[in-house]
């Protein structure tokens, strides 16, 4: 990174830190939105812009700068799912307002709004770096905006509940109690006790949903009968309380069982459970205030249950990540710790997993003085299953390489071992050979792998002699080997399909043709420089797209 670029990055980071401090210093929505828009206009020297937020499934214009009032009045008012990029009316408005770039404000609940900016003062177009920096600003702002919206909503709720101080106090005390429990049985029991004490009910049921599965936490109804009747209805869509009248009309099966009230327990609009209550002992009906209180208590309970579940998942995820990191260390230790120094060959190799563990493999094993086994393999799939199979082939190769068997016969033995040890349809593409440092000779077998590229006098020779991929079936036809007398200046590039199939954002592959061109262009370079060149070309081609497959390279140049 150049000094100018480094200074630019430093300035950007400093600006982001200061911006974060400012917008998180207040919960006032107007203050936050003003700072967001002014920061964006100042950073990109834009002459106009706006901020819109989502309210009641509609985008509402909240703030604008530099856009004429007559244009603002044409801002569309419509129900939307948040995909403004594909909304014809919104796009028409953006065009009439001369807005050049728009980015979403995404929070944990999804898209909560967007920011649009007009052209720059200097007339330049917005770059990809500009778009990424704008996304970063909005990601930082999203939390502050979301917090402000949540606080506004809480204030509104508190104003509406001022007349019910006693029940609020009860909810407060219950919330503290719910927070103390980490077991679902204790949470549901506290919920039952609070409802029984407040409303004098004798029949009740507390149900928790995991997907479409029903977990009965507490019940005084006959459980089998209750579940049988409940499954006759689309219970996951009960998103509002159902009183006696609605139950008798639309849920007669539950009403006949003695259910007089159903109150959903929801998190972020999703029904995660139900509270079913029977008749009150004093024969009083459930009032609107009663239903609101039950709903509130149920929300506290389901949040406590959800927090418990999320906490458990977080612990399991952390444990899994620790195990994966340990597996990664083990896998890296299976690869050669250093490349051997030879008299006639210059060798370089690299392995990059797309996940913490991967299914690519390469090895260099010294079998005799001046003789080395070189190998490269690609297990189908990625992640832990592929890494385990990779470890198997590494172990097989280590053992068989010491048996003094010709590599064609040895390949058949390895295939039989892999076939016996795989049962889920996985397979391995495999290339290996015996490299003779004294005679400058390579004897190889290719088991369905991408044929390595041999560059000789600017011509391409593919090393494809061999047989079928490993692990599909037992060896029926023997593998063929081939011996090549290597010459000074020859270069062999061995690779997995993570190289040739590296994908850019437009779903285009890097391709073996590009790799062949690099091989010709770098024919005079040493192995390490050639490998660096390949990596640079791939990184430039993918344009920052995530690595979709494991990537392995081994390059051998004859001195």
Structure, described:
There is one protein chain. The protein is of the alpha+beta class and 559 residues long. It has 3 domains: 3-159, Beta-Lactamase (2-Layer Sandwich), CATH 3.30.450.40; 167-310, 2-Layer Sandwich (Beta-Lactamase); 335-558, 4-Layer Sandwich (Phosphatase 2c, domain 1). It contains 16 helices and 19 strands. It has helices spanning 3-23, 29-44, 69-72, 88-96, 128-160, 165-180, 184-199, 223-230, 244-250, 252-256, 288-334, 383-400, 407-420, 497-500, 512-521, 527-542, and strands spanning 49-55, 58-65, 99-107, 110-118, 204-210, 213-219, 261-267, 270-277, 345-352, 360-368, 371-379, 428-436, 441-447, 453-456, 459-462, 466-467, 482-485, 491-495, 551-558. Strands 10, 11, 12, 13, 16 and 17 form a 6-stranded mixed β-sheet that branches. Strands 9-19-18-14-15 form a 5-stranded antiparallel β-sheet. The protein is flat and about 100 Å long. The model has no long low-confidence stretch (mean pLDDT 83).
């Amino acid at each position: 990174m150049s000094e100018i670029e480094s200074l630019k990055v430093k300035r950007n980071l400093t600006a982001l830190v200061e911006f974060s401090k400012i917008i998180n210093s207040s919960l006032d929505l107007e203050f936050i939105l003003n700072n967001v828009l002014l920061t964006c206009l100042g950073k990109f020297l834009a002459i106009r812009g706006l901020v819109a937020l989502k309210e009641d499934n509609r985008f509402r214009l909240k703030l604008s700068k530099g856009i004429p009032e007559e244009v603002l009045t044409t801002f569309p008012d419509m129900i939307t799912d948040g995909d403004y990029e594909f909304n014809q009316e919104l796009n028409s408005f953006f065009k009439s307002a001369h807005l050049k770039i728009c980015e979403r404000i995404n929070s944990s609940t999804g898209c909560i709004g967007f920011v649009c900016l007009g052209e720059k003062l200097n007339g330049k177009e917005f770059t990809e770096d500009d778009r990424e920096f704008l996304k970063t600003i909005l990601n930082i702002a999203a939390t502050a905006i979301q917090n402000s919206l949540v606080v506004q909503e809480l204030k509104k709720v508190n104003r509406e509940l001022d007349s019910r101080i006693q029940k609020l106090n009860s909810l407060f005390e219950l919330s503290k109690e719910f927070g103390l429990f980490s077991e679902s049985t204790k949470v549901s029991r506290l919920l039952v006790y609070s409802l029984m004490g407040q409303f004098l009910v004798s029949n009740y049921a507390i149900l928790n949903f995991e997907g479409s599965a029903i977990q009965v936490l507490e019940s005084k109804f006959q459980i089998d009968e209750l579940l049988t009747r409940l499954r006759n209805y689309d219970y996951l869509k009960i998103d509002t309380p159902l009183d006696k009248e609605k139950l008798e009309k639309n849920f007669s099966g539950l009403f006949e069982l003695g259910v007089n009230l159903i109150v959903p327990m929801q998190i972020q609009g999703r029904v995660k459970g139900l509270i079913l209550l029977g008749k009150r002992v004093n024969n009083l009906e459930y009032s609107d205030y009663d239903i609101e209180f039950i709903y509130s208590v149920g929300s506290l309970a389901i949040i406590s249950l959800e927090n418990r579940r999320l906490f458990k998942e977080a612990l399991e995820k952390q444990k899994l990540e620790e195990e994966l990191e340990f597996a990664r260390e083990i896998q890296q230790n299976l690869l050669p710790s250093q490349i051997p120094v030879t008299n006639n060959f210059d060798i370089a190799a690299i392995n990059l997993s797309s996940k913490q563990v991967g299914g690519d493999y390469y090895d260099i094993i010294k079998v005799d003085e001046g003789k080395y086994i070189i190998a490269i393999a690609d297990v189908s799939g990625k992640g832990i299953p592929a890494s385990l199979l990779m470890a198997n082939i590494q172990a097989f190769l280590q053992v068989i390489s010491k048996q003094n068997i010709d590599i064609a016969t040895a390949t058949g033995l390895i295939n039989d071992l892999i076939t016996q040890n795989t049962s889920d349809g996985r397979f391995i593409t495999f290339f290996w050979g015996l490299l003779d440092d004294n005679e400058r000779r390579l004897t190889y077998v290719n088991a369905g792998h991408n044929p390595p590229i041999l560059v000789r006098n600017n011509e391409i020779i593919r090393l494809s002699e061999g047989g079928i991929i490993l692990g599909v079936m037992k060896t029926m036809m023997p593998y063929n080997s081939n011996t090549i007398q290597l010459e000074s200046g020859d270069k062999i590039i061995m690779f997995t399909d993570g190289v040739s199939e590296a994908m850019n954002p437009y779903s285009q592959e890097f391709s073996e043709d590009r790799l062949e061109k690099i091989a010709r262009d770098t024919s005079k370079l040493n192995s390490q420089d050639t490998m660096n060149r390949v990596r640079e070309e791939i990184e430039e081609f993918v344009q920052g797209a995530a690595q979709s497959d494991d990537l392995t390279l081994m390059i051998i140049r004859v001195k």
